[in-house]
Design goal:
Blueprint (H helix, E strand, L loop, with lengths): L5 E5 L4 H13 L3 E5 L2 H12 L6 E3 L5 E3 L1 H11 L10 H16 L2 H9 L2 H16 L5 H23 L3 H24 L10 H12 L5 H10 L1 H11 L20 H10 L1 H17 L12 E6 L2 E6 L2 H16 L3 H10 L3 H5 L6 E4 L2 E4 L2
Parallel strand pairs: 1-2
Antiparallel strand pairs: 1-3, 3-4, 5-6, 7-8
Helix pairs in contact: 1-9, 4-9, 4-14, 5-7, 5-8, 6-7, 8-11, 9-11, 10-11, 13-14
Length: 368
């Protein structure tokens, strides 16, 4: 690695690595990617971050940055050309909402389609995990090593996200509907907000590339059912027909994006609203704590008329507070209120949590 290059530690099979990798490529930021092997975890990630997590970015000045949103924000300040953040209020609000939706909600179909279609995916996934952990080992040992994370990821996510058999079917219906809506939109536009990728595009890219495009079963479905979505993935991650234009003029939100936004507010926003209320309750009961727990209980949620119970994750609300900050700072909230009412998203903005969060030293903390 040269002195001017960034180092991305990740792997192709990782959802969030794909988000940052696509961003780095599109911005033409000089970087090399280091595979997150067992040795890299023990020698670099654990000593620098304190937990087993990827991706991690090491800067030419040997700064260590973790979390995709933090990485992108760090790089945006240093490479401002073709910013992924729109300057106009509606588009900026929508872009950050879509990033949160991709990062924190679409992880459910990503995990479901990876692990519940084992006869199609398992051999591929075991090899992917194993060749990441021990890249120089024989294939038989890589398959064996791949079984270790597979046992964890393949089972633990279901109670965490509240995905039982009925909810799994509901997630499939919802995801197929999302694919259809995105395919209509991306037939007309190269990116979500026009001719330039936004932070919302990269939020979607994580789950839609590593899991839902690369894994055999959902990848085949995406390419057949939603070919324009597959081309969008290739445009963002593989730089096929990448474009460097502008967001739509006049702060316009494409009409073809409205069904996607309505699905987001219908499914994710009630959970965000409940999370905010639970966060304030947790804060009142733990006034002496600065670091926020990863999970602070459970609550109900609904997808396609199916009900289940999932973990309450304050990190999701930290992501949502980025959109709340855009809304609260707007000079003319009427414009944003009009949009939020159109997509049935006003309630989560009018019932904001009082507790403010920050991500510091690789941990979620209370800001106020």
């Amino acid at each position: 690695m040269s002195a001017e290059q960034y180092q991305l530690i990740g792997t192709e099979v990782s959802l969030y690595s794909g988000k940052v990798r696509g961003y780095l490529r599109h911005k033409k930021i000089p970087f090399v990617e280091t595979l997150s092997t067992m040795k890299i975890y023990s020698d670099v990630i654990m000593p620098r971050v304190g937990k087993r997590i990827i991706p991690v970015l090491l800067t030419p000045d040997d700064e260590c940055i973790q979390d995709t949103t933090c990485i992108i924000d760090y790089l945006e300040a240093r490479f401002p050309e073709h910013s992924v953040y729109p300057e106009t209020p509606k588009q900026k609000l929508v872009a950050t909402l879509l990033e949160s939706y991709g990062d924190e909600w679409l992880v459910m179909p990503a995990m479901h389609y990876r692990w519940q279609f084992k006869c199609h995916n398992l051999r591929f996934i075991l090899k992917e995990f194993g060749s990441t952990a021990i890249p120089n080992a024989w294939s038989i040992f890589q398959y064996g090593m791949g079984a270790v994370p597979a046992m964890a990821f393949g089972n633990l996510y279901k109670p965490y996200f509240g995905i039982d058999k009925a909810m799994g079917k509901a997630i499939e219906r919802s995801y197929e509907g999302l694919l259809d809506d995105l395919n209509v939109h991306l037939e007309k536009y190269p990116y979500l907000l026009g001719n330039r990728p936004s932070i919302g595009d990269y939020g979607f890219l994580g789950p839609l590339y590593a899991h839902l495009y690369r894994d055999p079963y959902p990848g085949k479905m995406m390419k057949k059912r939603a070919p324009h979505v597959a081309k969008w993935v290739e445009r963002l991650e593989l730089m096929k027909d990448a474009q460097y234009g502008d967001f739509l003029p006049n702060d316009d939100i494409p009409q073809t994006l409205i069904p996607v936004l309505k699905r987001m507010t219908r499914e994710q926003f009630p959970v965000l609203e409940k999370t905010g209320a639970a966060l304030d309750k947790w804060r009142a009961e733990h006034a002496d704590k600065k670091t926020v727990s990863r999970v602070i209980g459970k609550h109900d949620f609904d997808i396609e008329g199916v009900h289940s119970t999932r973990a309450i994750t304050p990190f999701s609300y930290w992501m949502f507070q980025r959109s709340l900050a855009t809304y609260n700072a707007a000079e003319d909230k009427n414009v944003l209120d009009e949009l939020l009412k159109k997509i049935d998203g006003m309630s989560a903005f009018s019932r904001q949590a009082k507790t403010q969060l920050a991500y510091e030293n690789f941990r979620l903390v209370v800001k106020n």
